[in-house]
Amino acid sequence: MNPGRVGTSVAAFMDGADQQDNPDEQATAAPGAGAPGTGDAPGTGGGPERTTVLVDVTNTVTVDFTSGLQRMVREVTSGLVGPVGHGLEIVPVTQPSEGQPIRRLTAEEQDHLAVHPPGGRAGRRADDFGMLSPLVRNVVELDLTARLRAGLARRRRRRSTDATPAALAVGNPAPGSIFFDIEASWQNPEPRTELLPRLRSDGIHSAVMVADVLPELFPDWFDARLRRLFRSWLLAHLRHSELFLTISQCTASDLAATATKLGVTRDLDIRVVPLGADFPVTTPRMVDLPAEIGPFLLVVGTLEPRKNQKLVLDAFDRLRVDHPDLGLVLVGREGWMVGDLIGRIRRHPEFDRQLLWFGGIDDAQLAWLYQNAYLSICPSRYEGLGVPVMEALHHGCPTICSTRGALPEAGLGFTEDIDPDDVDGLVRLVGRHLDDPEYHRQAVERTAGYPTPSWSETSKVVGDTLRELARVPTVPPGAKDRA
User: Fold this and answer.
1) Alpha-carbon distance 189 to 100, whole Å?
2) pTM score, two decimals?
3) Would 286 be classed as within a structural domain?
4) Looking at residue 406, which CATH number applies to its domain?
5) Domain residues for 388?
6) In a domain, 481, yes or no
7) What is the pLDDT of residue 100?
């Protein structure tokens, strides 16, 4: 095995002494990450009562958009640095590319972790690639596309410095430390099938956040490469991780059932963590909409098959016969396997007039859209939770959502529900709102009773569970993993 490759042992978190030092980055270690350049294990400077928690944020600090996962990562990591993280030393870490050691963040990466990038600007089409747009759109449904996207992700990670300064090295985590896999890390350079067994054998706990297990439940929605990577990632955690945090009771049940299906018989410690819906925004900022648009329907989410935007587009076309000023606003980046949908949106006679698609907007603009939308619609065929439902209700927007997956959990009884295959039902329900002002007014008033979950509560629950894990005895350093 190549001794320079991350994961030859837990020591491959490495002190980075053979790398060139960069004095400009010696002061950029994440808050609470230990004295830079000392070679001490993180957390040793904070007293023996503090447990080091290495939080892998590789994906979040390298992508230039914000989805529900990136929002969760940012809110939880920032929340744990505060009082709710007492007794824990939170150390965000990354591995930009294969062959590099896992390390703390540079100043640029810390800045990127601290804010929610919009992933585009209001008014820009999500499929706008300049002169290359026609070529990109023509290949969007080819298997090659997945490989191209994976290559782009690797290049984004390598935008970080290729040399790891010694000041950013994590060093050798002390036994009893915690590795927290908080994000979608199945495409990270270090396979969890290699990393997790070594962590366990060296007495380091591992915990994982599971948003959903959709590639196992609905494989047809994902390409073969992603399904393969996800299963490998999931099996590694099912065999070696000690704590499983899920974002809904639905996902908790799905995870337990999937583990059984995959032949995992050991008891799993699965906890449900409530996600927040409050925005760190005090002043919503208006989005410049065309003059032709009247009351508008709002759909927030990546364009992909399971999000089912096609249902709302079908209903929109029918509703416009009697409500010609009705608008439809889609917010979300382009996903995968949606070539036909993208083409239909782009060729629609009302595109850029009453049918709008924003590839990404910032929180202030999204808050304004929630507050000014006539209705928010979440038509997904399945969700691990459904944060847009919670955000819409938080902003006082009446919401119609699908009955599938965890969406009823997200709505807490404050939504109007539809079957995701029932376009007739959606047309009738939206039509009732448009034709009966009193019915719509009452729906708006009901949203005032929605008990908005907070991100501070999310961080508190995560902190409590991590402290509980820290009290569990670990496998002695050097002991062989017997899982």
Assistant:
1) 9
2) 0.81
3) no
4) 3.40.50.2000
5) 296-451
6) no
7) 77
